[in-house]
Design a protein that fits this description.
Blueprint: H1 2-12, E1 23-25, E2 28-34, H2 41-53, E3 58-62, E4 81-85, E5 95-99, E6 105-112, E7 118-125, E8 128-136, H3 142-156, E9 160-166, H4 173-176, H5 186-198, E10 201-203, H6 204-208, E11 217-219, E12 224-226, E13 229-234, E14 241-246, E15 257-261, E16 266-268, H7 283-300, H8 308-355
Parallel strand pairs: 2-3, 8-9
Antiparallel strand pairs: 1-16, 2-15, 3-5, 4-5, 6-7, 7-8, 9-13, 10-13, 11-12, 14-15
Helix pairs in contact: 3-5, 7-8
EC number: 3.1.11.2
Site (Important for catalytic activity): 229
Binding site for Mg(2+): 34, 63, 166, 168, 253-254
Length: 362
């Protein structure tokens, strides 16, 4: 009986005293984004802020438009590691893969082409092997381009494979386009699907949203929407998939597409607290905090047998509580405002999808 109790305790992840582990499993979020050029500093800043807000772990970019001989700086403290494939003949195309600072990725090899069409990166995260591929297919003969890319990827890849990018092809025009049709020959789409099947690759968003209609790209020229941006995983690795979604289209004509996977990483159950110094720049809150401290010492200093040291140490907890409460309230208000704005944009997109009237956005 004692052995059985010990086994049950071990299976639940707690000790016999009921103490919980100090760490929790942590997922990884993978995001793909056609950014339509990042040579303007403002666009790079906007992208990096959005990636942080979306809590991206690994980011696949297409159409960076960087020159191979003089690419601009894209890496920051939040995303200190990145790999790039730039078109050698001009400022167009281009792919990239970025890693967030809290992803302990160790690279072992990379492969890219001079055309700025694909970038492969492989390595490990906490000892688990991964291969990441960011691709940007042309607007014509997509199936031929993909066949060459997948052939190279098959020789390169090892471990868990994540392929992402802009295919410029709706895989099922009946549900992946607003007009329910495409000018891409059906034979080309069939060839493209067979190429994906050769590596057992599965469209993760479609796997979770069978029959649903949503789009990642809007063409103002043709006044139509389509789903041409994808994240793929191999079929035998789909058990790692937690969720997948299409984000809101804002500053690019493409929407970000993301998915979350289980990972070998863990995160602390409790995070360490750091003072948000911006709170002290608010005169109203500074007065509120000062008043609370004055009231605290008036009520507690010199009372009974409580020592001055105890009163002083306890006041730190009171101040910290006020700061945390204020920070949470501000964060919640900002988050609510952002969500409301994005939901509003999303509603306008859906309205425009069926009306095709540009007045919907005014």
């Amino acid at each position: 009986m004692a052995d059985g109790d010990m086994m049950a305790g071990g299976g639940s992840g707690t000790s016999s005293s009921g103490d919980k582990s100090a760490f929790l499993p942590r997922s990884l979020r993978f995001l793909t984004y056609n950014v339509r050029g990042l040579n303007i500093p403002e666009k790079r800043g906007r992208l990096l802020r959005e990636l942080q807000a979306l809590r991206s772990s690994v980011v696949f970019l297409q159409e960076t438009h960087f020159r191979a001989d003089a690419p601009p700086q894209l890496l920051t403290r939040a995303f200190p590691t990145g790999f790039f494939s730039n078109y050698t003949q001009g400022k167009s195309r281009g792919t990239a893969i970025l890693f967030a600072k809290d992803v302990p990725f160790v690279v072992t090899d990379t492969l890219c082409d001079d055309e700025g069409r694909y970038l492969f990166v492989k390595g490990s995260i906490s000892g688990v092997a991964y291969t990441f591929a960011s691709i940007y297919l042309p607007k014509v003969n997509q199936h031929r381009c993909l066949a060459g890319i997948v052939k190279a990827l098959d020789k390169f890849q090892t471990g868990i494979l994540i392929l992402a990018g802009d295919f410029n092809v709706p895989l099922d025009p009946r549900i992946d386009t607003s007009r329910r049709q495409s000018n891409i020959p059906p034979s080309s789409i069939r060839h493209l699907k067979r190429t994906l099947d050769s590596l057992h690759l599965v469209d993760v968003w479609r796997a979770l949203n069978s029959g649903a209609r949503d789009f990642t790209y809007y063409s103002s020229v043709h006044a139509s929407s389509s789903r041409i941006d994808y994240l793929f995983m191999q079929q035998h690795q789909l058990h790692l998939l937690l969720e997948a979604d299409i984000g809101t289209r804002t500053w690019s004509d493409h929407s970000p597409v993301w998915m979350s996977l289980t990972s070998p990483l863990f995160r602390p159950r409790e995070r360490s607290w750091r003072l948000n110094t911006h709170l002290l720049e608010d005169p109203g809150f500074s007065r509120e905090l000062s008043g609370a401290m004055t009231h605290y010492f008036e009520e507690n200093a010199g009372v009974g047998e409580v020592s001055e040291v105890t009163v002083w140490e306890a006041h730190k907890a009171v101040v910290r509580g006020l700061l945390i409460s204020k920070a949470v309230a501000l964060k919640k208000a900002k988050s609510t405002e952002t969500v409301d704005l994005l939901n509003g944009i999303r509603r306008l997109e859906q309205s425009h999808l069926y009306s095709s009237d540009d007045a919907d956005f005014k």
